[in-house]
């Protein structure tokens, strides 16, 4: 198992819109594509409180490529993203890292 950590830094004031989009739209589309989330977090103390950090669990890089590509091209997602950004951009910056658990990690 590998994990992907994604950090979304929102345009100031747009974090609530991002959280709503994940809660009401994105997770349902991920489920359709078999994308497994491993946790979502907002920043209480840190560089910015306008961030959402989340983790995805993947069996392999090949699985990630296949499922993430299908999600990114899904017409339902493209339409929903466009609608939720009709009044302005939500995310200013995305950072993604692929992580492998250590031998002593509590997750494998």
Q: How does this model look, in words?
A:
This protein is of the alpha+beta class. Strands 2-3-1-4 form a four-stranded antiparallel sheet. Helix 1 (15-33) packs antiparallel against helix 3. The termini are close together. It has helices at 15-33, 61-73, 75-84, and strands spanning 2-10, 36-42, 51-58, 91-99.
Characteristic key phrases:
108 residues, alpha+beta, four-stranded antiparallel beta sheet, 3 helices, 39% helix
Number of strands: 4
Query: What portion of residues is helical?
Result: 25-40%
Average pLDDT value?
Answer: 96
Q: Which spans of ≥5 residues are poorly predicted at pLDDT below 50? A: none
- What structural class is derived from the secondary structure elements? alpha+beta
Sheet bearing the most strands, described?
4 strands, antiparallel
Give the number of helices: 3
Rg measurement, Å? 14 Å
Order of helices and strands: EHEEHHE
Shape: globular
| Assembly context of the chains | single chain
- Sheet-strand content, in percent, reads 25-35%
Task: List the strand order in the largest sheet.
Answer: 2-3-1-4
Intertermini distance: 6 Å
Pfam families: NIPSNAP
Domain NIPSNAP: 3-105
Organism: Bradyrhizobium zhengyangense
InterPro entries: Dimeric_a/b-barrel (IPR011008), NIPSNAP (IPR012577)
């Amino acid at each position: 198992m590998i994990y992907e950590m994604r950090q979304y830094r929102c345009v100031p004031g747009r974090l609530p819109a991002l959280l709503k989009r994940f809660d009401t739209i994105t997770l349902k589309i991920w489920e359709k594509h078999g994308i497994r989330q491993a946790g979502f977090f907002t920043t209480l103390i840190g560089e910015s409180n306008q961030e959402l950090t989340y983790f995805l669990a993947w069996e392999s890089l090949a699985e990630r490529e296949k499922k993430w590509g299908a999600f990114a091209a899904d017409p339902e997602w493209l339409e929903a993203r466009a609608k939720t950004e009709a009044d302005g951009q939500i995310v200013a910056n995305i950072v993604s890292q692929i992580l492998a658990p250590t031998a002593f990690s509590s997750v494998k």
